[in-house]
Amino acid sequence: MCATLFKHLPDGVFLIDPETSCVLDCNEVALKHVGMERSEILNQSVLKLHVEVMGLDQWASLAQAVRAVEHLVFVVHHRHKSGAEVPVEIKTSHFWQDGREYFLSIARNISTRQAQERAGHRDEAQLRYALNEALDGLWDWNLQTDEVFFSPQLARMLGYGPSEMTPHRDTWSANLHPEDALWVRKVLQEHIDGQRSRYNAEYRLRNRNGHYIWVHDRGRVCEHNDDGQPIRMLGMMRNVTDQKTMELTLQAMASHDPLTGLLNRREGEQVLDRQLELCRRLAVPMGMCFFDLDHFKRINDEHGHALGDKVLQRVAQTISHEVRSTDALFRWDSDEFLLLCVDTAESDLLVLVEKLRAKIAATHWQDLGQLPGITCSFGVAVFPDHADNADNLFVAADSALYRAKAQGRNRVEVAPKNTPAAAAAQTSDNK
Ligand SMILES: Nc1nc2c(ncn2[C@@H]2O[C@H](COP(=O)(O)OP(=O)(O)OP(=O)(O)O)[C@@H](O)[C@H]2O)c(=O)[nH]1
């Protein structure tokens, strides 16, 4: 039985003479480890199997150490007959039998284990590298305790040192931009509640210096408890400030007039539709004023286009200062501007527009050169009094402006009321 066990043990077993270091017996596995015949090993010094060969002096010290403890465990390399080196963990104990001392060494081939450990270290190193060097910052949120692991890269992205960010959800939520906080939390909660397959948001987050950066943040619940409740969420965050700034600049360029900085006609047409719809729903009036500089061509012709540009800029500036923040001013075309005033009835609109007219007429232009007095003509129409849709309202304001020009310029004209007679009059006016 003993011999059978000895034979079938998964590890190599050597019976050794402590005095000479010679192998007295070994099992089949031991022979297999070194690729040798029994005759090649028996009565040979066990040290010959070791790559790290020791002399007998060292063997004597080793033997002392074996005798001093119950088991001595050490790692060496066995040399396979083919020349390959096999890492083995050796566990040696000593015992006495019939007045003679023996060492029993169990040699375990640890090449697989070492390879796994090396792979493990590699994985760990890769993970550490990824956490430190990846473009994205990683966060790992315990939904039960609200503790959050922020990776070093994430901390760095926000200007913090590796251990400066308190590992808690509040560290994130307290720094959300006030305009983004509500909707970002909502999107996140919807994912946690299972209403969205993933959390994905682009928003502003305050960094350590108090400045906001744009981040693209995305993540997913990755663990649930036995009741199916989400308990852990993992996510990645990327600094997209540069892209976002570029995107916003392009958007601004597409919707703004580069000369005056006002919203352009393209944007105006959309705003007009939206504002009119809003006023219709709220059953409030909307005032529209279409205005145009008087004899602007002459200014260009007599003083140059560059100075003409400055005049346009100043008119835009002057009018912008006079209107409310809820009003919308657009540069429509060449020297034409459009003003939309939500919830403004005709009488109020006329007071405002008259003020604008007077303001432009009273503006001093000397700092720009020897300019004549500059004036504008204004056409006014109000929804729903003069028209009940955007196109007709625009036509009404435009024809009122036409009349203001025809009647001497530097004046304000109101569109005729939205009646069949008025519509007919308007048509004949436009001929
Ligand atoms: N400086 C400058 N001029 C422009 C710009 N866009 C259009 N214009 C000029 O603005 C002038 C507009 O003239 P009009 O509206 O036709 O006529 P007006 O001289 O203003 O005469 P009334 O409108 O009838 O009073 C034209 O000479 C255009 O070339 C611009 O961006 N800068």
From TrEMBL:
Pfam families: GGDEF (PF00990), PAS_3 (PF08447), PAS_9 (PF13426). Residues 1-47, 123-195 form the PAS domain. GO terms for molecular function: catalytic activity. Gene3D superfamilies: 3.30.70.270, PAS domain (3.30.450.20). PROSITE patterns: GGDEF (PS50887), PAC (PS50113), PAS (PS50112). Residues 284-417 form the GGDEF domain. CDD domains: GGDEF, PAS. Residues 199-252 form the PAC domain. PANTHER family: BIOFILM ARCHITECTURE MAINTENANCE PROTEIN MBAA, DIGUANYLATE CYCLASE DGCP. This is Diguanylate cyclase.
